[in-house]
Structures are given as structure tokens and as C-alpha cells.
TrEMBL record:
<keyword id="KW-0274">FAD</keyword>
<keyword id="KW-0520">NAD</keyword>
<comment type="similarity">
    <text>Belongs to the class-I pyridine nucleotide-disulfide oxidoreductase family.</text>
</comment>
<protein>
    <recommendedName>
        <fullName>Dihydrolipoyl dehydrogenase</fullName>
        <ecNumber>1.8.1.4</ecNumber>
    </recommendedName>
</protein>
<keyword id="KW-0560">Oxidoreductase</keyword>
<keyword id="KW-0450">Lipoyl</keyword>
<dbReference type="GO" id="GO:0050660">
    <property type="term" value="F:flavin adenine dinucleotide binding"/>
</dbReference>
<keyword id="KW-1015">Disulfide bond</keyword>
<keyword id="KW-0676">Redox-active center</keyword>
<keyword id="KW-0285">Flavoprotein</keyword>
<dbReference type="GO" id="GO:0006103">
    <property type="term" value="P:2-oxoglutarate metabolic process"/>
</dbReference>
<dbReference type="GO" id="GO:0004148">
    <property type="term" value="F:dihydrolipoyl dehydrogenase (NADH) activity"/>
</dbReference>
Length: 479
């Protein structure tokens, strides 16, 4: 059939994975086309994920800190919330960033094609034009012929099948729209996304319940870190139901009624349905692999919609690569970006590989919880010989001066070599502090390297050096 556009590199999806892949491809000199169904670049992360949630969390943290100042002898008036203005602020943040991306695409001469892409075969994709800000199609089709492709079509929210349509029941995207601040809010799913959005709504005045199937909130993080977060946040929650399944949700005029089921006898969930003013469903995300016609291109997709790739991000079709949420966990923007660079470089013919020792995770709650590399739980489960160094922030001058000394910094070491293989931090700014741990792990730094590095005083960053010193202190036989 007729071809409207020819290119060397086709990138499907303009999230952090897709735009990074397109930019790197263009920088390497490849004639690049970027296909995106939405009106803005940036994908989930910029439009309805990382960035808007952080704009709101920053606001929430300032409000909470202002209240906290009464213990320092400074009392502020109770905050007045203008939801419309707050929403405008959040939207302006998104606009600044997505606008910046559009400019960068233009400067690099990346051709962006607006529409829903569906592969026709291993060298052609059909793009059905979309309109407005969403992904409503208007029937105009274009065919792009490509030499190579990178699939970066991302993921979408998972909804529970028994949940009715009701404006009071939202997913993370709906929660970011800030339509109302409910009196009583239920969060289904105690993962990072649910707890971040819960933090925002609670700071704005909502009372929270959270329900989680597993035996604790914020799965993936060591329990000692989560415990500190949970203790500091007790005041936000009326009930935390763990080991509990949500089995029914009914929308009535006077509220949303939710029925729980104990997964085991450790659950404290009530037998009667509970009433809420708003329910946030945050039970995970599903990859978009089954929605892009991948089979037509011969690209293998798993039953769940993931695309398997090798260490160069190559699918089973040698000239087609895949990156980001669509290739698997952890579904995080920084992983997508790193994979994007590998894929673009490998497609160009460079010997790039996705070969990392750690991918950090951060819950941008208050306090923040951050971890990287091997967790202590993981190390124990694998029966490794590891040691740890823990520095409590109760001994940090800066944390005490800040009035926030509830946190701690923990480093995990290979007991034989003394090398840093993991770390976790809970406390204000933990997400920024974890970067030093990431670098230490990647560089194979040991306890002496980290402990003997002079950190500026008084900073929270010192706690990383101190954690290494603590570990060294109880090891006499380090190399
Ligand atoms: P996506 O961002 O999902 O982008 C895929 C793009 O492809 C989308 O724009 C989509 O419209 C487009 N697309 C899909 N199919 C087609 C098609 N057929 N045709 C045309 N276009 C198509 N991660 C972090 O690292 N830090 C955080 O703080 C963080 N916070 C988050 C908060 C929330 C509320 C959510 C929901 C997610 C958060 N994430 C965070 C996760 C992060 O957003 C994702 O990991 C990241 O966006 C994945 O990037 P991606 O490029 O793989 O895909």
C-alpha cells in the first residue's frame, strides 16, 4: 500500500522511554519519527504520573510542615485551600515540561506524528489520527515505513472488574484531577502510588482508610523503613486493613459502600460494608503490549501484555526493540529512560547493554522512603552473607535542627568484600539522598570508600557516610 512517511527509526509512544529513545536516536543521526496518541509528549510520567503527583505532594508537605512549626513556636493560620488554583498550578507544571519536550523534539528534527499506532507488519505502522487532548480518533490514517523501531507504549491503570462507574470512584489519573476533597476516603492498594495520593488528600483534609491484600503497606521496601513512615503517618489513617481483599464496591447516593474479606486471621477488616465519600483504586498497572498490533510485526507478547527483550532491549524481531513499562517491572520512569538510551544506541549499532546493579525506588510520601540495590529482606531470603550499617537520624544534627529526626539511613554490605550492595533511607528528602547509595553500588564502592568520603556538615547526606562508618566499626576483618 501507499507510504506517507519513511524513516530510519520509528518510536511508538512518547513517555519517558519513548521521548528519550527518539532524542538519542536523532542525536545519533537517525531520521526519527515519534508516534503518540495524546496531544502532549511525556506519557504517563509527565501528564498523569510522576510530575503532577510531585507538584501536589510538595504542596502537601509545605502545608504539613507549616502546621508542624507550632512545636518550634511558630503558629500559622489554618490553611485555606483553593482547589481550582492548586489544579492550575499542577497543570502549569505539566505544561512547562511537556512544552519543553515539544521544543526539544523540534530542535532535534524528530517528526512527531499524532495518533494511535498499530503495526501492519515488521516494517510498517498505521497511525490513526487523534484529536483534542485525549485519544479520540478521527479516521485519518497515515502509514509510516521504518527500518528500525522502538516500542515504548507503556502501561495503563488496572481496574478491578467489580467496580462500578461513579465520579466518586477514581484511579490515579482521576485522583490527580482534584475534583473534591472527601471527608472519608478509601485507598484500595497500599503501594507507592496509592500512598502518595493518599498523602495529598489527607493533607488537604481527608480521613483515610487503606486496604491491602499483602501483609504490609509499601511492598518491596524493607519493613524497618516502612515502620518509620507508618508511625509518623498514623494520624492520617482511621484504619489500615492489611491481609485483606476488597470483594465488592457499591455506589449509592449517600456513599460508596465497600465490602472486605479477610485473606487470613491477621486481617482486622470488619465484616459489614464500610461507607466512603471517595474511593481511589490503585492496584497496579498493566502493560499495553496486546493493544499495538505487535503480532502483525511478529513481536512476541506475553499473555499479560509484556514484551520480552534481551540485554540490548531487542525483541524476538532483531530490528525491533522495546523499553519501559511494557518490558516489565519495576515500572519506573528512570528505568525507562536508561533502557531507551540502550535501545537507541544498540539499534544504531553501538555495543550498549542494559547492565545495571541497581534501580532505585522512592515513595515520595512524608517522610520519603527510598531504597536501591539489594534490600535486607531480599539478601536474607537469598541466604547471602551480608552486613549492615544503620545510622539513626536521631544522631544527626541536621535532622534534629530540622525537627525531623524520625528517619534512618541503612547500608547493606557484602560481608566478604565490604562492598555496598544495597541501601535504604527513610526520612525527609530520602529520595534525593539515595542517589549517593546508587552511585556507590554501581561503582563497587566499599565501606571504606563511603566512610572516608568527607560529607558536608551538617547535612542529612552525612548519614550515608556515617552508616558506612557504623558498619566498619563492627567489622575488624575488612580488606
Ligand atoms: P508511558 O509513560 O506509559 O508512555 C507510553 C506512551 O505511549 C503514552 O503516552 C501513550 O499514550 C502512548 N501510546 C501507547 N500506545 C500507543 C499507541 N498504540 N499509539 C500511540 N501512542 C501510544 N515513576 C517514577 O519513576 N517516579 C515516580 O515518581 C512515579 N510516579 C508515578 C505516579 C503515578 C500516579 C503513576 C501512574 C505512575 C508513576 N510512575 C513513576 C511510573 C511512570 O509514570 C512510568 O514508569 C513511566 O511513565 C513509564 O514510561 P514509558 O515510556 O514506559 O510509558
Amino acid at each position: 500500500g501507499p507510504v506517507d512517511i519513511e524513516c530510519e527509526m520509528l518510536v511508538l509512544g512518547a513517555g519517558p522511554g519513548g521521548y528519550s529513545a527518539a532524542f538519542r536516536s536523532a542525536d545519533l543521526g537517525m531520521n526519527t519519527v515519534l508516534v503518540e496518541r495524546y496531544s502532549t509528549l511525556g506519557g504517563v510520567c509527565l501528564n498523569v504520573g510522576c510530575i503532577p503527583s510531585k507538584a501536589l505532594l510538595h504542596t502537601a508537605a509545605i502545608m504539613d510542615e507549616a502546621q508542624h512549626m507550632s512545636s518550634h513556636g511558630i503558629t500559622f493560620a489554618k490553611p485555606e485551600v483553593d482547589l481550582n488554583k492548586l489544579r492550575d498550578y499542577k497543570d502549569s507544571v505539566i505544561k512547562k515540561l511537556t512544552g519543553g519536550l515539544a521544543g526539544m523534539a523540534k530542535a532535534r528534527k524528530v517528526t512527531t506524528v499524532r495518533g494511535v499506532g498499530q503495526f501492519l507488519d515488521a516494517h510498517h505502522i498505521e497511525v490513526t489520527e487523534t484529536t483534542g487532548t485525549g485519544s479520540e480518533t478521527i479516521g485519518v490514517k497515515k502509514v509510516v515505513r521504518f527500518a528500525k523501531a522502538i516500542i515504548a507504549a507503556g502501561s495503563r491503570v488496572v481496574l478491578l472488574p467489580f467496580i462500578p462507574q461513579d465520579p466518586r470512584i477514581v484511579d490515579s489519573t482521576g485522583a490527580l484531577e482534584l475534583r473534591q476533597v472527601p471527608k472519608k476516603m478509601l485507598i484500595i492498594g497500599g503501594g507507592i502510588i496509592g500512598l502518595e495520593m493518599g498523602t495529598v488528600y489527607s493533607s488537604l483534609g481527608a480521613r483515610l482508610d487503606v486496604v491491602e491484600m499483602m501483609d504490609g503497606l509499601m511492598q518491596g521496601a524493607d519493613r524497618d523503613l516502612v515502620k518509620v513512615w507508618q508511625k509518623y503517618n498514623e494520624h492520617r489513617f482511621d484504619n489500615i486493613y492489611v491481609n485483606t481483599k476488597t470483594v465488592a464496591v457499591e455506589a449509592r447516593e449517600e456513599g460508596i459502600y465497600v465490602t472486605f474479606e479477610k485473606a487470613n486471621d491477621k486481617s482486622t477488616a470488619p465484616a459489614e460494608p464500610q461507607r466512603y465519600d471517595m474511593v481511589l483504586v490503585a492496584v497496579g498497572r498493566a502493560p499495553n503490549g496486546l493493544l499495538i498490533g505487535a503480532d502483525k510485526a511478529g513481536v512476541a507478547v506475553t499473555d499479560r501484555g509484556f514484551i520480552n527483550v534481551d540485554a540490548q532491549m531487542r525483541t524476538n524481531v532483531p530490528h525491533i526493540f522495546a523499553i519501559g513499562d511494557i518490558v516489565g517491572q519495576p515500572m519506573l520512569a528512570h528505568k525507562a529512560v536508561h533502557e531507551a538510551h540502550v535501545a537507541a544506541e544498540a539499534a544504531f549499532g553501538e555495543k550498549s547493554f542494559f547492565d545495571v546493579r541497581q534501580i532505585p525506588s522512592v515513595a515520595y510520601t512524608d517522610p520519603e522512603v527510598a531504597w536501591a540495590g539489594m534490600t535486607e529482606d531480599q539478601a536474607k531470603a537469598e541466604g547471602l552473607k551480608v552486613g549492615k550499617g544503620v545510622f539513626p537520624w536521631a544522631a544527626s544534627g541536621r535532622a534534629i535542627a530540622n525537627g525531623r529526626d524520625e528517619g534512618f539511613t541503612k547500608l547493606i554490605f557484602d560481608q566478604e568484600t565490604g562492598r555496598v550492595i544495597g541501601g535504604g533511607i527513610v526520612g525527609t528528602g530520602a529520595g534525593d539522598l539515595i542517589s549517593e547509595v546508587c552511585l556507590a553500588i554501581e561503582m563497587g564502592a566499599d565501606a571504606v570508600d563511603v566512610g572516608k568520603t568527607i560529607h558536608p556538615h551538617p547535612t542529612l547526606g552525612e548519614s550515608v557516610g556515617m552508616a558506612a562508618e557504623v558498619f566498619k566499626g563492627h567489622c575488624t576483618d575488612l580488606p
